[in-house]
Design goal:
Layout: H1 2-29, H2 34-58, H3 68-72, H4 81-119
Helix pairs in contact: 1-2, 1-4, 2-4
């Protein structure tokens, strides 16, 4: 069971890492206005949270043979077909919820950071004053 959970953590974590890479690229693109970049990070994190919650809700009923987790597991690590749907669905649901909770924490952090930066008047980077 530990091998299934480790593989599920890697599968879901890798997908989340690609989403965070996109978020970091967007935030970097708007780095000329740090509060805006932080708010964009919060929006992307909130979107990731929503997507992960939807995936967690669908995980128990998704056919286990069509999951990335099933393909990652070696033949000897796979559960028997009689219980595979329940085991794979439960483990994927748990991992999706774990990463959704983590993404929600990041969303709160980025929204708070954007708000604090806006309140202290840090709207532009030094040397980038508007004319």
């Amino acid at each position: 069971m530990d091998e299934i959970e480790k593989a599920a953590f890697l599968c879901v974590g890798r997908a989340c890492a690609f989403a965070w890479l996109a978020a970091i690229c967007l935030m970097f693109a708007f780095s000329f206005q740090p509060p805006l970049a932080a708010f964009i990070g919060g929006v992307v994190a909130l979107g990731a949270t929503a997507a992960l919650l939807v995936a967690a809700k669908r995980a128990p009923s998704r056919p286990y043979k069509r999951t990335e987790l099933w393909g990652v597991l070696s033949i000897d690590q796979r559960p028997p077909p009689a219980v595979a749907q329940q085991v794979i669905g439960r483990v994927l649901r748990e991992k999706h919820l774990y990463f959704a909770q983590l993404a929600a924490k990041y969303a709160v952090f980025f929204f708070a950071l954007g708000l604090v930066l806006r309140l202290i008047g840090f709207n532009e980077l030094p040397g980038m004053e508007r004319y």
